[in-house]
Amino acid sequence: MNQNNATNDDEIDLRELFTALWRGKRLIIICIMLAILSASLYLRLADRKYTVRYVFAPAATESSGPNLGGLGGLASLAGVSLPSSSSSDFLTYKFLLKSEEVAARMLKDRDLLASVFSGEWNAEQKVFVEPSSGALKFFLRSVKNLVTGNEPSTYIPPNAARLSAWMDKAFNSSEDRDTGFLTLSAETTEPALMVDVITRATQETDNLLKERYVATAEQTVSFYQHQLNKARAREHREALAKLIAQEDQKLMLASKGSYFVAEPITEPYVSLGPTSPKASLILALSVVLGGFFGAAIVLIRKSLKS
Known about the structure:
2 domains, elongated, alpha+beta, single chain, Bacterial polysaccharide co-polymerase-like, 5-stranded antiparallel sheet
């Protein structure tokens, strides 16, 4: 008997809940309309971002070098570094892509640097100046100084460290485990600038690794030839001859002026239309939140009246 009464009470409470929501439907609709209006205003004021994607693959096929026994230790004692596989070169390429060393080489392009830090570039004087801070920034800086006790940092013109930090936030890099391809992607309001930055960064990284290799290639080949003259075992001589051929092929690739470590598979991809913000998702979310907020107000008013 008690269970039946509890069930009837639950049914009555649920019925009263829907009745209260139905009576306050006008307020709920008003809240939904206000939420949609706010979402529409946000969509009109928000910056339109485009997706940029650039895919790279190793320029040379990965091959396992011959087993040279203790030749690696002998080479290290002689001050010669044996060549690494293409996979190792590709890992170095990904690590150096956003490094300060590559950023320092990109600083030579003054036009690109002025586009990246356009808010600090004075076109008349052709120099970088500290941007003027508004009242809000000054207030936030004062509050931060008061709370943390840290003195405000002095202005530093764009340098390798700042450009490297900017690139680290501007685009992402990810590697496909199945194909080994490296994908550089970004969402930006300036897709043309991002394509220029990624293209320049990849070119400078490839050139840097190429220059490093050319600087040590002749010493490495000379070491191999010296060991080949002293080798007596047939397997040892064949292994050294194969390494010399690989080094010559790699040196020829470096001297061509083409891609040395990584080469693009296709042209940079830029989305035809904005991909952010997503209008359908934001409008749907505004309807849900507006309805929830309106229902909460109706139920709160009902509980206060009761």
